[in-house]
Each structure stands twice: as structure tokens, then as C-alpha cells.
């Protein structure tokens, strides 16, 4: 699991924002279970984090 996935799963908005501003971050990275940061945030109910990811314009929602 990446740092971004962990932050999304735990709802750490400020860390997610910081990571999204970092060059080279793969916003759609998948872990060994094929889960993405967006899926972790959504499943955990972290609406603000989901919004941050979607507003980045870089998330593949398919």
C-alpha cells in the first residue's frame, strides 16, 4: 500500500493534499488487492478525501 492509499484510508486530508502536490505521485496506483486510493477513501467514508481526489482531475473513476 502506498503512502497515498494509507492516508486516504485513514482520512488524513492534509497529508492527501500534500501528496497530491508532490511530483511523481501515482494517484491511481493499485495495491496487491487491486485497490486504489479512491476506493479506500470511498469505502472508509472519507468524503472530503474523495472530493480532493476527484477535484485533482487526475483520478480514473472507471
Q: Topology of this protein?
A:
Blueprint: H1 3-10, H2 13-20, H3 37-43, H4 47-55
Helix pairs in contact: 1-2, 1-3, 2-4, 3-4
Helix content: 40-55%
Can you tell me the overall shape? globular
For the record, the CATH class is Mainly Alpha
Integer tally of domains:
1
Question: Which class do the helix and strand fractions yield?
Answer: mainly alpha
Give the C-alpha Rg: 10 Å
> Based on the structure, what is the oligomeric state of the protein chains?
single chain
Q: Would you give the CATH topology?
A: Serine Threonine Protein Phosphatase 5, Tetratricopeptide repeat
Instruction: Note the total helix count.
Output: 4
Could you give the count of β-strands? 0
Mean pLDDT: 95
Topology order in helix (H) and strand (E) letters: HHHH
InterPro entries: Ankyrin_rpt, Ankyrin_rpt-contain_sf
Protein name: Ankyrin repeat-containing domain protein
Pfam family, one: Ank_2
Keywords: ANK repeat, Repeat
